[in-house]
Amino acid sequence: APIWVSEGMASLYEQCRVEGDVMRGETNWRLPELQAAIGKKVATPLTSLLALNATDFRGKSESLHYAESRYFCKFLEERGVLATIYRNFRDRFAKDPTGRLFVEQAFGQPLARVEQEWHDWLQTQRWETR
Q1: Distance, C-alpha 115 to centroid of its chain
Q2: Which residues sit opposite 17 in a β-bridge?
């Protein structure tokens, strides 16, 4: 899987809850950085994030890339498509090594529209320190 999936899923479950036999990512400390970046229009566009290699992912914007990947995976999880997209990577990685096609298929719309829905959803998310 590309780095946004592997690190996005790993960081999604760094703070989670278990419901029966299913883990669910919870809102965490990465949210404020991502919301601020979107507000300042410096967030990485999904087309670019999905195409990042490991070196660029871990470059100067590493913290932001983790937040973006985590919360994109959380969005996918809440929309019920994360498992399907992951299975597509596992079974058909050669067809789409970035995941763009799998995301667009899961939502039935272009990535730009998915990104707008994700950004709208992000504005509804809240994180409070305990």
Answers
A1: 10
A2: 24
**Spatial CB neighbours of 51, under 8 Å, sequence gap ≥ 6:** 2, 98, 100
Token pair of 57, please?
């992912």
Give the residue from 65, 104, 68 showing the smallest Cα distance to 88.
104
**For the chain, which residues score pLDDT lower than 50?**
none
Q: Please provide the DSSP assignment of 72-123 as one string.
A: HHHHHHHTT-HHHHHHHHHHHGGG-SSSHHHHHHHHTS-HHHHHHHHHHHHT
pTM of the predicted structure, to 2 decimals: 0.95
The DSSP call for residue 1 is -
Q: How far apart are CA 110 and CA 92, in angstroms?
A: 19
